[in-house]
Design brief:
Shape: globular
Strand content: 15-25%
Order of helices and strands: HEHHEHHEHEHHEHEEHEHEH
Strand order of the largest sheet: 1-2-3-4-5-6-8-9
Length: 321
């Protein structure tokens, strides 16, 4: 019998993939075979769904959502508030009251159109990485104030029946982890409904991948009584900060990537009672975002399936336990 990720992990957690309007067609067979959760990679973001105030463009999101519904695949919503992917009009001539009203109109429209989404990333990446700061300097912060986190979750709770998540990266760095914990508790203490923490888990071949710190981080988050989901997982074949154009990926890089996938999933299985879903940020290497970031056109190969949609060593490594 051919291996299926969702079947192998059915007693552990959902296995998800971020898809776009291209991959939902080209990777259809992979999605149906291996995944039981779908995230719209970009199609539900603010600029994609409301390019003009009050004028919504749902075609791309509808295509992905319709595919998921037709095949009984649960959908994660991504996202309501982010410092990127915003239409130009959103912050124009906006004071606090105006911006919150615009956000509420937007959230209401998406929640009504996609009522059975099982969770939403309410706020994405609102916390700084560096040790000296706390909140990312964004127009949300500048116009609304530090309580925009609380207000966004309160607005979302009016319309969203599914779970509401705070989502961020570098979430296992001890300094940033403490900031994330501080912020999600501040949101909850404000009386807003916050149900979970999204741990992006963009890993790479950097020697500093610390599996003990990952374990420690999962344990610290789990103590807080929030739902935990791995929301954007991949393993870049280049070290963090490498912005060079390389000729190709070496055999040694693939071996190191395989080892990271294997060890990471071993840890996730240990915490199956704490983790609900593990979502890969993409389906196969041909449509992976890492081919465009941080170097456009540089092949990365950060996922489990190659450009021909064939399973790689990393796939077999996480299935062998």
């Amino acid at each position: 019998m051919e291996l299926s990720l969702k079947e192998i992990y059915k007693d552990y957690f959902k296995i998800g993939a971020a898809v776009n309007i291209e991959s939902v067609d080209t990777c259809k067979d992979l999605i149906l075979k291996h995944f039981n959760s779908i995230t719209c990679e970009n199609a539900m973001k603010f600029d994609a769904t409301e390019p003009e105030e009050g004028k919504f463009t749902f075609d791309d999101a509808d295509k992905i959502y319709g595919f998921a519904r037709a095949n009984n695949i649960p959908v994660r919503g991504h996202n309501f508030v982010w410092h990127q992917a915003n239409p130009e009009w959103l912050f124009q001539n906006a004071d606090r009251e105006t911006l919150l009203r615009r956000l509420e109109n937007h959230v209401k429209a998406l929640a009504e159109r996609y009522p059975d989404i099982y969770c939403w990333d309410c706020i994405n990446e609102g916390i700084l990485d560096d040790k000296d700061g706390y909140l990312r300097k964004t127009q949300w912060l500048e116009i609304v104030g530090e309580d925009y986190f609380n207000e966004a979750f309160k607005i979302a709770a009016k319309y969203v029946g599914g779970a509401l998540f705070y989502n961020d990266y570098n979430e296992f760095d001890p300094i940033k982890r403490e900031k994330i914990i501080r912020k999600v508790n501040e949101i909850r203490d404000s009386g807003a409904r916050i149900d979970g923490i999204g741990l992006q888990c963009h890993l790479n071949l950097n020697h500093s991948v610390d599996f003990d710190e990952i374990k420690r981080g999962i344990e610290e988050y789990a103590k807080l009584d929030y739902k935990l989901q791995i929301t954007e997982h991949d393993v870049s074949n280049y070290a963090r900060g490498d912005s060079e154009m390389h000729d190709g990926i070496t055999f040694e890089q693939y071996k190191r990537q395989t080892k990271i996938f294997k060890e990471f999933f071993k840890i996730l299985r240990e915490y199956k009672n704490e983790i609900e879903t593990v979502t890969f940020w993409g389906t196969a290497d041909d449509t992976c975002w890492l081919n465009y970031f941080p170097v456009r056109g540089r092949k990365n190969g950060g996922l489990l399936f190659d450009e021909n949609h064939e399973p790689k060593e990393g796939f077999y490594a996480i299935c062998d336990f």
